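Researcher: Please generate the 3D structure of the following complex. Treat every line as part of one assembly.
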Amino acid sequence: MSSTTLDGTALSPVPSVDAVASAVKRRSKPALMWRALRRDKAAVISIGVLLVLALVSVFAPLIAPYDPLEGDATQRLEGIGTAGHLLGLDGQGRDILSRLIHGGRYSLTVAVLPVLVAGPIALLIGMSAGYFGGRVGDAVMRVLDVLFAFPVVLLAIAIAAVLGPGLLNVMLAIGITMVPYMARVVYTATVQESAKEYVEAARAAGATQGQILRQQLLPNVLSPLVVYGTSLCGLMIVLAAGLSFLGVGVTPPAPDWGVMTSDGRSVLLEGYGHVATIPGIVILVAALAFNLIGDGVRDALDPHKQTS
Amino acid sequence: MLPQNDSRRLRTRPPRGRLGAALAALAVLLSACGGSADAGGGAAGEPQSGGTLAIGIESDTDVLDPHRAGGWVTYRVNRQMYEALVDEDLTKSSEEAPIPEIVPGLAESWDISPDGLTYTFHLRDGVTFHDGTEFNADAVVFNVRRMTDPGFEYYDARSAGQTVFVWQHLASVTATDPMTVQMTLTQPFSPFLRLLTQGGGGSTGIISPTALQQYGNDEIADHPTGTGPFRFVDRVRGQRITLERNDDYWGEKPYLDQVVFRPLPDPSTRVSALRAGEVDMISVPSPDSVASLEEAGFTVDYSNAPHLWYLSFNMTDPIFSDVRVRQAVNYAINREGMAEDLLRGTVNPAYSVLPPANSAYQENQETYAYDPERARQLLAEAGYADGFSTTLMTSVDGSGQIVPVPMAEYIQQDLAKVGIDVQLDTTEWISYLSKWAEGLPPGTGMGQMSWGMTTPYWINIVTNSSLQAPNGSNVGHYSNPELDALMQQAATATDEATADELWRQAAQMIDQDAALAPIVNDKAPYVLSGDVQGFVNPSEEWWDLKTVWLS
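Model: Done. Output below.
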């Protein structure tokens, strides 16, 4: 507890540890990371791709050639290259390109937000359970194990059914469902890291538990979580589409990419493959981009690969 | 660019409009001719026994207990095993018999007293149940008491609830001799015989009393024991139901050795299974697959079934209690467009609450032809010139629902054009059924369902104020005393012509007051592979397999 002697110079010991430990690092660490990430071509391209998708989504009303909700049934299912409709029309005669452009608003939000919501919760649960352990930690992890017993979709349906349909509720439902999975990743990493020598060293040097958690464990635990989280982003789009199909997710006619894909499924083998394939490809690209960024971030967070 | 585009359109889309319909009809006719010519060449046209017919059905079935079960899908299975006293002749297609004729079933004949209060059924001799039990008047009384008599040991409240539409006016049932059953009614009830043949709600198929005593009211569904042309073999929930030929059947024995019903809820899965030869016929193909299935040599068989896909309006909703709003919705929906463009001609636009295939049906009742301008005007009169928001609830799949979500989206777009902002509330079928049966919740302006019967009495079931949900299927809580009185008159009329006239008036009253929004009448398409012969698609929501054989 008393860490006053750690460097001797501090007036108040606790901030001083902070200051010393990271005065140099704090500013340079993100810079180091960014430098490492920049070297990863795949990650850079992926960031570019997602940025473009995000910008297109933000400015959707300005870019989209047609109203994404209004269709002309007489032209329905016409293929790629139909006059005036670059990517063709869907089952309701709506312009697929316009729907894709607007759909990013739903799909990208659904991809990122649940992970961002679940991440901190998982971090808190996983780290405290992993670091402090004991009965409480065990109990917490057993409760999460129980949640593992439910298939993700079932759990999400149950939550969404209670909350009611709608985009926000879907994200909340998916976010909650993801907590046990992400917490498990954090927990495992925390248990592993806690046993390592540098943690011992910090403890021996008199660091408080808060300091050990924040300064020693967090950076090392964060990296697997970030990697896992980004890889989940792509899955989220698909999961949300599944929930929508079951009537608890994004409600029609909202142009969510996942919903668009599942809508097109019914005519996939009838010669109208474009309806499902085009949004499917977009999901694939987005999911791949998230994964590649995840890989890039993992490498960038790996101190062995950071070079100054 | 243009000519290319045109040729694509010709290739991938069925022709539209009146000429288009004629061409399509011609094509169906030609393909039908082609089919029979094939059969003539390949199998000499002589029906042959044997084989297993696999049918891909649109959802898993309810319990295989005819009294308890609900839904068309289930009755299509139960009907093969169970028979009622009175039957419908399903050996004729819609063209030959627009309304299926009432024919003897387990009763060979019947007498109705002139006052319409006493029905005497003379039962068929020499009929045995699948378990060997003899069919007689006691068996009939046993079954009717199961559905109606709370004092009876084998009374079943669920069965009673499901079949109340048949037995609501029953006063007594007695076996006057071993082969005669007499039923008396509390009031004349002209649809009674027809209702005995129905199976969309509960049905009145006769179960072996021995089996009921052996297995009890709950277990009988796992051991179906009737008198029908097929007997039960096994059921794996969600996967298959297998039936085999009843070699002791009293009538013409079926050709097929076995029938397997396979629930395949997803239309594209169903179509793929048919293409792959895993099943020999399917119900409800996705409308977009029909043209390519026909091209690939499959036969698409339509009928004029009493099948209405409709919306109920929530009369407890302040907006929809205004008749002008309900009429506006009716005017705003482009039914022709939905039938032709979205559903590729697999349905007919519906303008009246009375579906086809019943004695009171009238064609060309275009009360609400597509007129968005009129809709806007009515909304303005009702004080909604700027429109309003509401919710439409529907299922995502289910028995007779066709493709509910795309259809609801179509309606959503049409209503948006007149300023009504519709949120869709979609639910999986089984949950949807119970939700629907509870009645439309506050805030939900419209609820969708598919139903209909071969008797005009059906409109009473969905609009009579005494049958408001949750105590009946009037889910919009519609209440119109004048209509109730008119329908009571129609139901008690002993003369059929009078009854039909009264039902027509009732239907007109419902249509004018826009109690419901009829949308389309399904043409009940079935798709058959080339080796399925003798299948008849009658003017009913179900069919017989007695005449079916495999070449």
